[in-house]
Amino acid sequence: MGELEVIGLFKKLWRPRRPILQKYDDAWAFRMGKEYITVSTDMLVERTDVPPGMTYKLAARKAVVMSSSDVASKGHAPTYHLASVGVRFNTTSRETKEIVAGIHQGIAECGGGLVGGDTNEAQELTLSMTTLGISETRPVPRILGREGDIVATTGEFGGPPSGLLILLGRAARTRRGARGLIDAALRPKAHVKAGVSLAGAAVLSGSTDSSDGLSASLHNMMTNCDRGAVLQQVPYVHGLEDFAADNGLDPLDLAMNGGEEYNLVLSVKRDQWRKALRVADDEGFELHRLGRVVRTKGLWMLDRDGNKHEIPRGGWSHFGRKTKKGTGWAPGRVIY
User: Are residues 120 and 174 in the same domain?
Assistant: First the structure.
């Protein structure tokens, strides 16, 4: 079974009363008095999430970013974190201190405080982070919104998958920008300020993050609505086109299907786009226009001649590959 099929089995148990967010969303939300509480949990496993060159400190930091990004995509800042940590029986005290330091660093960057968790023995490093956000702002659902709304993002794409291929020895360093590509893979960032600021300004009709890849994120947004999107452009991270040319790869494929950027993928209300740009300028974060929401369900890219090309769902999928026992780290992106 693929990851989506496994998730579907658990979703059959989903029986909430008066849900605030959709069945297929980045987080769960409920209300207490005037405040909304969002909850998200994410798991980092050494074999699939920790490439060569990523220290335990960086891995633990990434685990915090993963769960914090989901809360940020709902427009909330992390308030509390719980960490469940599984380590090998022979993990050294130095490695353990690295893990603790990484969690501390991630929380310092994303916000909030550690309030609990669990520890256990495991066959490999396994970190499960649960993050809660508390706000009077209603969480933003994972939908595309209305026809004519603006599809946008808070960052550039293609860096982490390119850096990952370099770290795995499957691609050569590019002529320029290789350090930035590798850094993007090792040090992802959660766009907390952008999510909180845009949600607080009431300019969003929908939001998710791009951890599974841009194409997957937009298809996820379609799952909860009957709209589609037409993209006119995708912003590339610096050095991506050189890297792709040097290694015979497609930069658009890397940008659409690589994942791990943790950019926010947004649907901005069509009459609020200028306000959204002002918020981004005032708060100091990027905001790129990708395209627009259309009535017909599906995802397309416009070429230079104005022709539409359908974009299938790509990106990350656990359980979607076969690996040989003992081969070590293996990426779950079936496109590579």
Answer: no
Tokens 């009431």 correspond to 202
Amino acid at 47: R
Q: What is the per-residue pLDDT for 316?
A: 57
Q: How far is CA 262 from each of CA 8, 153, 212, 217, 247, rounded to the nearest angstrom?
A: 23, 10, 8, 10, 25
If asked whether residues 52 and 102 sit together in one domain, one would say yes
Q: What is the DSSP letter of 36?
A: E
pLDDT beneath 50: ranges in the chain: 321-336
CATH of the domain at 113: 3.30.1330.10
Quote the pLDDT of residue 330. Answer: 34
Domain that holds residue 239: 150-310
Could you tell me the CATH number of the domain that includes residue 255?
3.90.650.10
pLDDT of residue 174: 73
Comparing CA positions, the residue from 71, 79, 83, 78 lying closest to residue 27 is 71
Greatest C-alpha distance within the chain: 60
* pTM for the whole structure: 0.90
- Position 320 in a domain: no
Q: Does 195 fall in a domain?
A: yes
Distance of CA 18 to the CA centre of its chain: 27
Cα-Cα-Cα-Cα torsion 256, 231, 278, 187, nearest 10 degrees, comes to 0
